[in-house]
Amino acid sequence: MNTKTDSNADAKKADRPRVLLVDDYPDAREMYAEYLEFSGFEVVEAENGMEALQRAVETSPDIILMDLSLPVMDGWEATRRLKADKRTAPIPVVALTGHALAGISEGAKKAGCDAFVTKPCLPEDLVKEIRKILESSAANRKVRRSGKYAKSIG
Amino acid sequence: MAVGAARRPATKRNGSAPYTGVPRVRVAVEETLGDEAEELAARVRLLEGFVGRGEIADAAQLALQWLGNAVGITQSICLVRLSGDVSLAVVASQGVGGSAGSFNISLEDWNNPLVTALNHRKQLFFPEPHATADRKRRPSTPFEDAAFHVVPLGVSGFSEEPFGLLLLGGSAPLPHELHWFTSVFGQKLDQILRQEALTEGDRKQGRERSLLYSIINAVSDPILLTDTEGRLLIANSRALTLFTATEEESEGRRSAVRMNNMLLSSALSSKAIEETGAARRELLLVNPIDGSDLVFELLSTVTEDPRQGSGVVSILRNVTDLRRASEEIEENYRKMRVAEAQARAESDRLNLIIDSVADPIVVTDAGGATSLMNEPAERLFTIPKGASAIEQRWVQSNDAHFSSFIAGMLVSADQRRVGEIGLVEAKTGEPMPVEAIAGKILSEHGELTAVVTILHDRREAIEKAKLYEQLKQASDELERKIQLATADIAQQNELLRRQAIELEQASALKSQFLANMSHEFRTPLNAMLGYTSMLLQGVGGPIEAPVKRQLGRIESNGRHLLTIINEILDISRIEAGRMPLQVSKFRIPELVSEVKAELEPIIVRSKLSVTLHVAKDLPPLFTDRQKVKQILLNLLSNALKFTHHGAVTISATADKRDRTVQLSVVDTGIGIAPADQERIFEDFRQLDNSPTRAYGGTGLGLSICRRLAQMLDGRISVQSQMGRGSTFTLALPTKGRR
Fold first, then answer.
1. Which among A98, A121, A123 has the least Cβ separation from residue B534?
2. What ipTM was estimated for this complex?
3. CATH code where residue B539 lies
């Protein structure tokens, strides 16, 4: 899958926004990945928080979809680290969780999440949400990109 | 020296002149011849010696010396009975040593031969004793075992008793000259004794006179002797103060004395007229010292004195105090009478009281005999007339019990005694335990005079005590039961508390479990719905119409399942207190439009007209907008679901008085029976409980709505008529949560 994503990324890198999708449940992750690519996004996948940190630094996504209940390192901790890292701090993080009890969204906001989406969330609804967030921060996207390049060059 | 020389002529005389009591004249004649001249000279010497000797001891001593010189009797003792004495005492002694001084003879010792000799005027001779028997017969004298003569001394020719004895030592017969000597010596002693007795008598008379004066002066009553003319002859000191006064005394005193003399002589003269010898009368005099009145009783007696003539002896007895005393006695007597009357009244009242007391009272004397009892006591202790044998026995038994109690009281030292006596009712024989309270009554001298006993029937008290005991037992039992019950309740409370904790924990666990479950449900459901949606959108390529219809079924059932899961989750969140409120200020019209818009697809499908009636003056709400919306969505979707034809109206009005806003959803649907109108708010409650429900839904919607309304301090109510439709109203405070 990663291979496929990478090839997709290679093919349509220029005009397609890149999404880092973090979820340990393969069916959900692959479903969203398939639909996101179907909807015109470049998708980078990660199975846990640790991997997410790595991928975020490597690929500099435009947006990160973060499941909260994750093995190795959970979504809250990963988000905190992403927001603490200058390189990844500007990237909007959308918490994506099946947990609906009170306090979860609060905890997610504290950790640094920019938005909160409750599963189940139909793929098309998720895409609508991502587009909304990306549009609101469209102005900043180029800056971040250039930053990334600068880094790569550097 | 002289003794030896004197003996010889005495021996000579013994042979020639035996002692026979020859008259003095003849002796004087004989003395004129030869030896007789010498004898005569000796006699003259004795007589001369006696002249002028007034003391017995002097005369006796001279006489004894003369005996030694003239007659040759050298050992001699003279004993004389002095006046008023009952013994003979030694007045002089010669040649017998010092032991003679303390020697005397008691005249009351009749067995003494010396006393016999005196009484019978007999001369005796005691030779030297030869046997023990001889010694016993001898009187004890300073001569001891030596021979001696006893010669009585007296006045010869007179009938008077001898007054003395001469004890003369020696065994030779007495010379005749001794006869003359005893006669002369006896006369001389008699003369001296008589002289002494005479002076003694004079002295005695003087003594008696002064004694008499002191006696009459010692008498506190005035005593006086007056002559027949009333002149004062003798008066004691008391009388003198009343009847005499010197010139130096005060005028008042002298006039009082004059007055007294007048009063006395008038009393005596009137007494003299009566001439009854002795009379008593009252005489009022004045006390010369202080002028106070004195009342005397005058007792006068006429005395006949042959030498002095007759006189009157008067004794005045001061009865002033006596009069006063007698008046007092009279007064006291009167008081006593009054007191007696009072005591009698008191006693009557006491009897009345004793009789009126319901408790038996018995008064017993010191001997244990009953002296008084009241009527209740009589019923117990006396046998009534015509009593049967058994009744008599009951009374006797009572008597015996009481007597033994009293006997115990009498022997004990206690002043009071309280005891229990087992008596019986005299009429019925019913046991009658009584409490006996006995008290001793003592006289002023502490002697027991009576015992008063009060008997108190204890039956009622015993009955009460028994009842009280039963009551107490019952009460104790009750208390014990209450304690048990309380302990039980406490235990159950504790159990309940624990159960409550367990339930709370279980409830928390349940909520947690449901939260976890819903998460676990949703994860696969998410994938299912997601892929279904993707297939329907043709992500995997175009699909046939029947497949599309089938996928639609999967999707709608999946959504239903999701709804159920969401609602369960909502309830568990509310119950676990983990449904946070997000309060904001918002306007109602926008909210209502939003709700209608959200359900537009269903409204279109139902073909019902949904109208909005929103008042213009609605205030903004300040509460959790999302929850209000959730409630309205639920109510509207229910209305659409249960209404087959007609219309659904959403109205919003404000009640300024209550400061509430009413949001109502009115339908023309199937309606709800009154009995069910409350039940529809319970969990999982749909009125149609059949397995294939016509209306779908989870049955949790209204339950959640009510819970949410409560969270917002609002309430949901329903009005409905079967077949006519229902109105659900949500009332919310305009101020929102405090």
1. A123
2. 0.73
3. 1.10.287.130
